[in-house]
Amino acid sequence: MSVIPAEYGLVLATTLFVLGLISLLIRRNIIFMLISVEIMLNAAGLAFIVASARWEQPDGQVMFLFILTMAAAEVSVGLALILQIYHQIKTLNSDEASKMKG
Amino acid sequence: MLIIFYIASFVAVIATILVITQHNLVHALLYLVVSFLAVAMVFYVLGAPFIAALEVIIYAGAIIVLLIFVIMMLNLRQESVAQEKQWLNLQIIVGPVVLAIILGAELLYMLSFEPTSGLEGNVIGAKAVGLSLYGPYVIGVELSGILLMAGIVGAYHLGRQKKKVTHRFLETQEE
Predict the structure, then answer these.
(1) A14 CB near a chain B CB, below 8 Å?
(2) How is A44-61 classified by DSSP, letter by letter?
(3) Taking a contact as any Cβ pair under 8 Å apart, which residues of chain B between 88 and 117 contact chain A?
(4) In a domain, A3, yes or no
(5) Which of residues 139-168 of B touch A (CB under 8 A)?
(6) Model-wide pTM > 0.90
(7) Residue-by-residue pLDDT tens, chain B, 175 positions
């Protein structure tokens, strides 16, 4: 058992995840929405690390590595999509991109 | 150790709240870096120094740089000069710097006064992670490689611009 109780770490992870979720729901800027997804992925990884420290097994850290890989691939593809959207509709407001064939 | 965990998590939550309440993207990114650094500190306290280093290198390094590049590519409009002047204002970096100084003081305290307390027994270092990663999880490593390859190809395909035939000086009129 780690010196830090697992509940505290999970509370921190939940708080960060909920903050990211709130930001994702209230924001209309696409880059801010991508940042919110990053915050949520980071919080999910924190929950894995807390579990890894609780049971003193390296599996949680391995899962964090996979989350890290997925976040890196996701942000690169997402930013390429943002560039394309910006060249098409000349704004970063996601409500403007609500129509297909726009 | 518990008080260091409390302070680092407090800094992480404050920085994240400031990220989601900012209107300017670059200001939000400054706070996002501090948030990632605080989470890296939490990882270190939880006994995962390798993951803490990776968090700093990849999240606070590579992903933030990627976001900053895209923001710089998008802000090529007329108001960019005024924006640049506004971004160089020293007041906006006070908040991130204060939070980062708190984290730096924590790190100095841990390294100088309690150099061994974070390394007692319950630390899972890079060796254990590597043995697990290339032992039972080796198929996951290969799938990560495939995922990154797909990410590279997808980003290249999506980010490719159509070749413009007009002259550079005529493009401003076209837009």
Answers:
(1) no
(2) HHHHHHHHHHHHT-THHH
(3) none
(4) no
(5) 140, 144, 147-148, 150-152, 154-156, 158-159, 161
(6) no
(7) 788 889 999 999 999 999 988 888 888 898 999 999 999 999 988 888 899 999 999 998 899 998 888 888 876 565 556 666 666 677 777 888 888 888 888 888 887 776 555 545 577 788 888 898 898 999 999 999 999 999 999 989 888 876 655 566 655 554 4
Closest CB to B17 among A19, A52, A68:
A19
Domain spans of chain B? 2-125
Instruction: Using a CB–CB cutoff of 8 Å, tell me whether B74 touches chain A.
Output: yes
E-strand ranges in B20-133 read none
Length reported for chain B: 175
The CATH number for A68's domain is 1.10.287.3510
- Which fold is adopted by the domain B2-125? Four Helix Bundle (Hemerythrin (Met), subunit A) (1.20.120)
Instruction: Give the whole-angstrom CA distance, residue B92 versus residue B137.
Output: 44
ipTM of the complex: 0.90
B140 to chain A, minimum CA–CA distance in Å?
8
Report yes or no: A53 and B47 within 8 Å, Cβ to Cβ: yes
